[in-house]
Amino acid sequence: MFVYRRPPTAKALPRMKAAVQHFGLTEPDWEAVLRTAAQGALRRTVIVTALEAVVRFADLDEVERRNLLPDPHLDWCFTAESALLDALWWHALLDGPVVRCSVRMARYRKIRDSLLRRSYQLLGMKRREGARAFALMALSIVHHEVSGAPLATECSTGDDWR
Question: Cα dist. 100→46, 90, 117, 142 in Å?
Fold first, then answer.
C-alpha cells in the first residue's frame, strides 16, 4: 500500500546515518536530503522510503553478523522493499510530463528487476551480501534524487530518471 512519507524526523535521521555508515557506503549530503525532501511529496516519499530500507537492511546485516534469528528482520526487509517499489512506481508514473512516462517506467522496471534478483540472496545463505546490495541500490536512489548522481550500475543504463 502506497503511503506518502513525512520528512525524516530528528529521531530518525541519526538512525539513517548510522545505517549508511554500517555498510561503509558514501553518505549523501544530509542537508541536501532534507532540502530535497521538502520539495515534493512524491520525491520525499521515494527518498524517505529508500532511507528506511537502508535502515532495515542494516538491521538484518547486524542480526546475521551476530548469528541471531533473522525471521522478523527478513519480514521487515521485504516490507521495506515493497514500499520502495511502490514509491518508485508512483514516482515514475506521476512525476513529470506524460510523454516521458514510458522512459520513467522502463527505468522503474530495471530497478525493480535488480531488486527482485537480490531477493533470492536474502532467502538463501547469502543474506549479508544481499542486504549490502539492497542498501547500495536504495542509497543510490537517494543520491540520484538528491544530487542527480547516476544510479548503481546494476539498476541503471544511464543517469536520466526523468
Answer: 19, 14, 26, 21
CA–CA distance, 36 with 44 (Å, rounded to integer):
7
- DSSP symbols for 77-89: HHHHHHHHHHHHH
Closest to 144 in 3D by CA, of 54, 58, 39, 50: 50
Give yes or no for a contact between 141 and 46, defined as CB atoms under 8 angstroms apart: yes
Secondary structure (3-state) at 123 = helix
pTM of the model: 0.86
Tens-digit pLDDT string for the chain (162 aa): 567 788 888 888 999 999 999 998 889 999 999 998 888 888 899 999 999 999 999 999 998 888 887 678 888 988 999 999 999 999 888 887 888 888 889 888 988 888 888 777 777 777 888 888 889 989 999 998 898 887 777 655 444 443
The sign of the torsion formed by the CA atoms of 117, 124, 71, 8 equals negative
CA 46 to CA 80: how far, in whole Å? 11
> Is residue 22 within 8 Å of residue 58, measured between CB atoms?
yes
Q: φ, ψ for residue 70 (rounded to 5)?
A: -90, 0
